[in-house]
Every structure is written in C-alpha cells, then in structure tokens.
Amino acid sequence: MLTTEWSLFVSRKKLFAGDSVLFIRDEKQQLLLGIRLANRQPANISSSVLSSDSMHIGILAAAAHAAANNSPFTVFYNPRASPSEFVIPLAKYYKAVFLFSFSEFVRWKNSQWCNLQVDNKFNTFQNLDLIIVHLI
C-alpha cells in the first residue's frame, strides 16, 4: 500500500529528483507531512528524467540501503500535513538507538539550559548520572 499511495502522491504533487518530503510529529503525537522542492534547473540544461515510479522506488531503496549499512540518512517531516504511522516518537528513537531513556527533565528558571536525568539501563557509559542539554 505504501508504494501504491506513494506513487500517487509523487504524481499529484509533481515531485522530481532532489525534492524532499518532510515528516515531523507534533506535540499531540500526530504525524505530519510536507514537501520542500529542490531548485529546478533551467530548461536549456539537459538532465536525466525520472518517472514518478522510479523516483519513489529510488527514495525507498536509498533509505533501505542506508539503514542496512548503518549509514545515517535524513527524514524531513512537516507537522502541517496529514498524519502517518511510520514515523516514531523521538523518545522511542532515543531509547532504541542510544540505549537509555530520559527519566527526568528539569528546566532551570529563566534559562535555555536544562538538566536531564539519564536512565543508563545498559551501562553503556560509566559513572554517567547527569548530562546537560542545550534546548534550541
């Protein structure tokens, strides 16, 4: 279903290679979707043409390849579009990737800094009880 719907989405939005699909989860845990169009080349410059089918397969293949090789890749997400079920909450990601969970989060009054209590379940870091995080 993802590939069928994705193909329709790419066709309707007239997406091309280099465009970005943005994904983000809002504070209500709703998944939202948006599009960032790449700069288009002038018409007089030749470029290879990709069909919408080959484009969506290429995007999914690139993400699968990066994941299979433990390589980083970026998923952009826009909270102002329709929700989806395949983007997970950030806390769940941190718990899976960094092998610890955030158990306590304290913001200092009138400060952009906070104190973050770390639950070090797997003893990945020795003698680590508190870390300081800068909120952006």
From TrEMBL:
Keyword terms, alphabetized: DNA-binding, Nucleus, Transcription, Transcription regulation
Single GO term (MF): DNA binding
Main location: nucleus
Keyword DNA-binding: yes
Annotated ranges, domain TF-B3: 1-39
Family matches, as SUPFAM superfamilies: DNA-binding pseudobarrel domain
The protein's name: Auxin response factor 19 isoform X1
Species for this entry: Arachis duranensis
